[in-house]
């Protein structure tokens, strides 16, 4: 059974720092991995989608990597801003086409 | 149009009420989903519609009744809910295709409170 883990559960950093959020999964048989952002009480915003055949995807200050063989993905945020404060969730599309979620990392960027 | 639109944004209902949540997308996506999310938890899948047919029901109580009238619209009918059903209800859509290469697009959710 696929399990997705996100570490750390919470992270607080000063504005301007570069940071890395981690996502690990137990079964490498995935179709893709998607990173989402969620502001309190709001819906989910898709940040990056990485196919199983890809190694990384970039969008602005965000870069997501995927190492399927080791069951790991990272989300790198460059030059963090207070507006980046949110909960970040990763989800893998498993071999049954289902979306399996991590518990999320709550990120606080201090001005 | 690259959005999933959910209405209403907020809903308060009594345990004897009947209400409906609505979800709409015009991206041509043929898979649509209802999720329930409690505070500080990831979303939990409730229902999946594929080509307007119910393909997955994750053992959801019958007081939740989904409906997909056409390829752009998804409803969730609510009746006789319990206070523990209070949550954020999220709708999502995705393209269907070989190997499920596509990502999900989520709406902004309906915050439901059952009193």
Provide a descriptive summary of the structure in words.
- The complex is a heterodimer of chains A (about 110) and B (about 120).
- The mean pLDDT of chain A is about 95.
- By secondary structure, chain A is mostly beta strands.
- Chain A is about 0% helix and about 60% strand.
- The radius of gyration of chain A is 13 Å and the shape is globular.
- With about 120 residues, chain B is an all-beta fold.
- Chain B has strands at about 5, 10-15, 20-25, 30-35, 45-50, 55, 65-70, 75-80, 85-95, 105, 110-115.
- The interface of A and B includes residues 43, 46, 89, 97 and 102 of A.
Task: Offer a quick outline of the entry.
The complex is a heterodimer of chains A (111) and B (115). In chain A, 0% of the residues lie in helices and 60% in strands. Chain A contains no helices and 11 strands.
Outline the fold blueprint.
The complex is a heterodimer of chains A (111) and B (115).
Chain A: E1 4-7, E2 10-14, E3 19-25, E4 30-38, E5 44-51, E6 56-59, E7 62-67, E8 72-77, E9 86-94, E10 99-101, E11 105-110
Parallel strand pairs in A: 2-11
Antiparallel strand pairs in A: 1-3, 3-8, 4-5, 4-9, 6-7, 7-8, 9-10, 9-11
Chain B: E1 4-7, E2 10-13, E3 18-25, E4 31-37, E5 44-50, E6 53-57, E7 64-70, E8 73-79, E9 87-94, E10 105-106, E11 110-114
Q: What structural category arises from helix and sheet content of chain A?
A: mainly beta
Helix proportion of chain B: under 10%
Q: Averaged pLDDT of chain A, please?
A: 95
Sheet with most strands of chain B = 7 strands, mixed
Which ranges of chain B are low-confidence, i.e. pLDDT below 50, for 5 or more consecutive residues? none
| Alpha carbon gap, first and last residue of chain A | 41 Å
**Distance from first to last alpha carbon of chain B:** 36 Å
Category from helices, strands and their pairing of chain B: mainly beta
Let me know the average pLDDT of chain B. 92
% residues in beta strands of chain A: over 45%
What general outline of chain B do the C-alpha atoms trace? globular
Shape of chain A: globular
Enumerate the spans of chain A where pLDDT stays under 50 for 5 or more consecutive residues. Answer: none
What is the number of E strands of chain B? 11
Helix content percent band of chain A? under 10%
* Beta-strand segment tally of chain A: 11
Quaternary organisation: heterodimer
Order of helix and strand elements from N to C terminus of chain B: EEEEEEEEEEE
Please compute the radius of gyration of chain B using only Cα atoms. 14 Å
Q: Which two chains touch over the largest interface?
A: A-B, 22 and 20 residues
Structural Rg of chain A: 13 Å
